[in-house]
Give the backbone structure.
Amino acid sequence: MTLGTPRISYCPNDIITSAEPGVTTMNVTWIEPTVIGFPATPMTSQSHDPGQPFPIGATNVQYNFTNTADNSFLSCTFTVSVNVVHAIYLGCFQDCREPVGGSRVLPDVRHDNNQMTIKLCTDFCISQTPTMRYAGVEFSKECFCGVEGRDSRFNRLGRIEDAECDMTCRGNPDELQVYLQRTATSVQYNFTNTVDDSLLSCTFTIYVNDTTVPSISGCPDDIKVKTELGSSGISVSWKEPTAFDHNTVVRSRSHAPGTQFPIGSTTVAYIFTDSFGNPALCHFIVTVEVEDTVSPNVTACPKDVETTTELGTTGVSVTWNEPTATDLSGSPFRIRSHTPGTEFHSGVTSVNYLFMDTSNNTANCTFSIIVDTVDSTPPTISQCPDSFVSVGGRHVTWNEPIAFDLSGEINQSRSHPPGMFLMTTTNVAYMFTDSSNNSANCRFTIDVVEDIEPPSIEGCPSDIYVVHELGDSSPSVSWTKPSVLDNYERVVFIDSTHTPGQTFLDGSTQVIYTFADDSYNMAFCKFSVHVEMVDTTPPVVKSCPSDIVAKVELGTPSIAIQWSTPTATDLSGNVTLVSQSHQPGYRFSAGSRNVIYKFADNSANEISCAFVVTVQEVDATPPVVQDCPANIIRNMELGTSSIPIYWSTPTVTDSSGNVTLVSQSHRPGYQFSSGSRNVVYTYADYSENEVSCAFFVTVYEVDTHPPVIVGCPANITTTLETDSTSMELKWIEPTATDASNNVTKLYQTHVPGHEFYIGSTNVMYFYVDSSNNMAICSFSVIVIESTVKRQSGIVSSQRLYEASGDRCLVIATAALVLGVLAILVALCVLLVIFMYIRKSKPKEDIQLKSLTKNEEGSSRM
C-alpha cells in the first residue's frame, strides 16, 4: 500500500464569534483536524479542545502531529476571535432635569465622574445588576442608565438634531456627549380692558413629541445553512426587513444579503430610526454548520476466498488482508461482520466491512468465503479385542468390533467368526471400508490353553470406620467392590455377605466376597465395618430477632430498644446460655451495634444468634418560612400588556442549618399581565422536609384617561341685525372616543337651535367613560347688538348716567345679580354630574382628572 506524502487533510479556518456585553468567556467548538500519509498512528498534541471557553479577544489554537517513526511533525494553526458586541449610538434626545427615579428619561442609575467618556459610561451601565441596556452622557461628566425593555422611555420627549449635543466629555475632549433638550412653542392670550386699557395675559407651552418607534415588517427568522467539510464559509442571502413610520426612517445594518459568513453563529442586526430618534431593532442569527456528505474511500477490498474442510469438522479458519478506508474527517469508524481467523462452516458466507465517518456517510466492502467439504478420514474402530487366551475349551467367543464413519456407509469383512478353535494360536482380522474407500483394520490372536491358577483379587477394601449423629438412624455404608484378575480372564463372581449402601448397626460387622474361575479355582476378600454414634450437632436457636432499625429525632442522645429473648434446643436435651452482649431495654446511641447470644450443649457444640440494632438520627421537622409576602394587588393602565411586580424574597430557617430553594414559580420583577397568579416558593432541608410559601399577585386593568373630545366648536360670535333681543343658533355637536370604546354623553347645557340672548352664554358638553373619567367641551356663544343699537345705547347710557347716578347703580346691581345666578347654575350642573358619578362608582374609586398639566422644565442631557 502506498502511503503518499504526509499532509494535513483538514485544518479549520479562523473562527470569529460574538459575545454580549458583560460576558467574559464564550464556548467555541470546531471539527478537529486530521492527518494522512504517516506509516503509523501519529502522536497528537493540541493547545485547546473543542467546546472549551475562550476569553474576549484573539486566541491561537495549534495542533501538532508527530511521526513516531522519524519524529517529523506537521502543524495546524488557526485563530479563535471572541468579539464583544459594542454599544450602538441611538442619537441626541431631550431630557427633564429632575432627580434620578423621577421623570428622567433614563431614570434607573446615575454615575458622575470628572473623567467621563462614552465607553466609561456604557461599561458602567453594563456592569450593573440587572444589566442596563441604555446609557446617556449629560453635562460632560454625568452618566445615566436605563434597563432593557423600557424603549419607550428614553425617547418619550423626542429626539433632536445631533448637532445640539455639543458638550464634550471631560475624559475625552474629542467625544461629544448625548445632548438632549425639548423644543417648545409658547402660546399667549392677551385680554385688554377697552375702558382703561388694562391688560391680562394667559401663557402656556405646547410640546410636540413622537414617541412611537418605527414598525418593522419582514424581520427574518434565525437562518441555518450548511457548508461542505473543508470550506471556510458560505454566502447567505435573505429578504431584507422594512419599516414604516409617519416620519422619515433611516436604516443601518451590520451585514448585507450575500455576505460570506464564517463557520459558527453570527448576529445580523438592522436598526430603523425615525426623525425623532425612535429606534426599532430587528436582529437574527445566521448559523453556518459544517456537513460532510462524501463517503469514505475504501482500498484493498479482498476478492472471494475458496478453501476446503474435512467431513465431520465444524469448519475451517480463514484469514485475509483487511481492507482500509480514508476520509476527510479523519479515520472512519469500521464495522465488520467477521475477523481474519474466524472459523467458517461449509458453504458460502458473505463477509461485510462497513466504514462510517463522523457524519454517518458509509462505504462498503463485501466478499465471499467458499468452503467445500471433503472425506479423507478412514472409519473409526471401537471394541477391537486384544489378543487373549481361552482356557478349558475350544468354543471361543468375543465381542466383535464395530466401526463408525461420518459418511454413514461402511462395508465389513472378517477372517474368523466366533466359534470353534483348535488348541493352538489363531490370527483373527476385521476390515471396515467407507464410501470413499478409506479403510481401517482390527487384528488380534487367540491362544486356546488349560487353566490351573486361582483368580487374583484387587481392590479388597480395608476395614471401614463410620460415625453417625446422635438421634440419626443406622447409617448406610458404601465401598468400591473388589475386582478380580485371572490369567485367562474367565472369572465368575459367586457371593458376598453384604452389598455397598447397606445399613449397618452400631458395632463391628464382617463383609466377605467369594470368587471362582471356570476351572473352579477360588479366592476370598474379607473386611470389617465398624459403626460408632457421636454428637456433633450444635443446638438450634428459636426466635432469633431480625435486624432492628429505630429512628430518633435529630439531637436525641439514645433510645431504649426492646426485643424477645431467643431460646435454643438440642437433641441431647441439655442447652446452656454461654453469653449475651446486650439485654432487652438497653439504651442505644446513634449508629449500628451487633447483639450476640451464644448457646452450647454438653458436647461443647456452640450456636450463636446475632442481629444488628441500628439507630438513625432523622430530621422530620420541615423548615420554617419567615416573611412570606401577603397577597399583592396592583392596577395597570387599560391597554398595557403587563407590569413588573416586586416583593421581598421570603427567608427560611431550619434546625439542621441547611435549607435549599427547590423551586420558585416567579421572581421579583416578573412581568405580570392582568388576572390573578399564584406565586409559590418551595424550600427543603437535607432530609427532604419541604415547606412552601404561596401568595397571589392580582393585576387589575384600570382606565385613568378621560375620553378624547372630537370637534369641540370654537367660540361663536354673531350680531343681531334686527330689533330683536335674541336669536336661534345651531352648530355641529362634538363627539368623544375612549380606549374602553364605551363613552356616554352625560349632560349638555344647550342644544343646537337654542335661542340665545344678547351677551355671552357658556355652552358645555359633559362626556364620561365606563370608568367615570370625564371630559368637558366648553365654548361661548356671544350675541352682539347691531351697530346702530349699540351707539344709541351709548348715548342713552350717557344720558342716564348724567341724569341719575342712582339708576346707573341699579343697572350695575342687576348685572351683578345676573352674574351670580350664572355661577349658581354652573355649580348646580357640576353638582348633578358629581352625584351621578358618585352613584355609579364607589367613593374610593372616584378620581379627579386634570384636563391640563404643568409641563416639566427643560434641561440638557
